[in-house]
Amino acid sequence: MHKCLRIKVTSSIRMPNRILGALVFQDLRQKFCSHILRCMFGLGFCWFITATLPSIQAQDLSIQQDFNAPPKHFTNYDSGAWLGLYTTYWFSKKWGYYGEYHLRRADFVNRMSKLYLRFGVNYKVDTKFRLTLGVVNRYTWSDYPELATEEHFVPEYRFWEQALFSAKYFGLKIYHQLRTEQRWKRSTKISDPTYYYYNRFRYKFLAYAPLIGPLLETNSLFLTVYNEIFMQAGKRVEYNYFEDNRAYIGLGYGLSDSIHLHVGYMKSFGQLNAFEFRDNDIFRLSIYHKLSFFNDVEL
Description:
It is a single chain. The chain is of the alpha+beta class. It folds into two domains: 1-68; 73-292, Lipocalin, CATH 2.40.128. It has one helix at residues 2-64, and strands at residues 74-90, 95-106, 111-126, 129-141, 153-169, 172-185, 196-212, 221-233, 242-254, 259-271, 276-292. It has an eleven-stranded mixed β-barrel.
């Protein structure tokens, strides 16, 4: 009698737990699906912009130009190779240093294009949210260094701010990066040495997917994809508010828990002015180095 009663009581207690577990799992699944749909929508929108701008340009050419008139719009096609070093060093549980150092070649590797030196201070709000601010020195080489009217290279100066969010979903590592930049830049023409001010706004969606081994650890192989949109504003910006869209796919390998090697391909499409577009195919090789003396720093 007591045994039967104990079985019935236990069953009545376990049943709500199973129902509660199912409800929790269903809620997590709905949230995950909703997040994936939003990310897919954002990526789809980015790819839509990249894909449709050239077709709009082509339609405009076919409608507006006659056989004797020069094109009203044109696209510069190029290839490049970008080498990058990314460093993140935490000196306390909240504060750390962030640095990016880029060497960029144009015409694949035949000529120098740009040198980037980005420095910043990290502040960790929590293990999934980080704020960064700093300065940038960029050096741009002239496309026509043989001309006497051109500077060989010119510097550019920036301040920048960033918010980085991270999340994990079923083995995937997801990042949302919001970055703003205040830029003072000039052309490479000797006759125009004036620096002009621009604002830039950037959003990047990035995802890591494990292929072999635990993600982002020693001897791990993983897939990397991201898309980043660049918008700009300023007194001299009239037609090219959309500055650039960069879509990337590549592989990463964990040389150690703190050093990762990334190799991949990037498509960059942007607008330079009212009449000129840019379409670049870029090979990227990057090294990421992270060092922390605190175990709870995950970003």
